[in-house]
Design brief:
202 residues, single chain, 17% strand, 4 helices
Length: 202
């Protein structure tokens, strides 16, 4: 007996061939019988062929699922990484702006010690003074210390609004402690704006 997809081929010594089902041509089976090759175990081959095909398909589906989840995780991490980098950039810019105003105060120390850089909670934006353009250069002699302070604040607030997303600032002078509290606020995409204070002691 020899195994075929259609059934079992019976090969007798007189080479008369009979099939358990109606087969296609089985030339290879006949040649094997003539050459005296041993019969194959049909039951084992049939039992293994079908389940192995199904298991391979299951492996492919599981692999696709794992790859899809992995790619989704990579995309999420990349998006979060870009977001954190942007937040870090904005915080760096806010620190730069705070130190910029501190340097302006140190340059115009007489006005700073009188509290001329205090915004006092006012929503009115100081106006730049054309006489103070180039404040730390030769034109500084054309305006007094108080005018220079107002010009510094106007220039600085304009930088804040143009640099930080929906940026705003507050500068409060504490005459008792002789210190300024500089507070910057900007939108960071959450429900509440991000607020960062700095304190400068004179």
């Amino acid at each position: 007996s020899y195994c075929t997809p259609e059934g079992i081929v019976q090969v007798q010594r007189d080479f008369t061939i009979s099939f358990s089902t109606v087969p296609d041509e089985h030339t290879n089976i006949i040649v094997a019988a003539l050459l005296g090759e041993p019969p194959r175990n049909c039951s084992m081959n049939h039992k293994l062929s079908s389940p192995m095909k199904g298991f391979s398909m299951l492996e492919v589906l599981v692999a696709l699922l794992v790859i899809s989840v992995g790619l989704l995780g990579v995309a999420t991490l990349q998006t979060k990484g870009q977001q954190f980098n942007y937040f870090s950039y904005v915080r760096t810019q806010s620190t730069y702006l705070a130190y910029d105003l501190m340097e302006r105060m140190r340059t115009n120390l007489d006005a700073a010690e009188k509290g001329d850089y205090d915004l006092g909670g006012s929503s009115v934006t100081p106006s730049a003074d054309s006489k103070c353009e180039g404040s730390s250069n030769s034109n500084v002699a054309k305006c007094d210390f108080s005018q220079l302070a107002q010009d510094d604040l106007a220039t600085w607030l304009n930088l804040v609004q143009n640099t930080l997303p929906e940026g705003s600032a507050q500068v409060i002078w504490d005459s008792t402690r002789k210190e300024y509290t500089i507070t910057l606020e900007w939108d960071q995409g959450g429900d509440e704006p991000k607020t960062q204070p700095w304190v400068m002691k004179l």
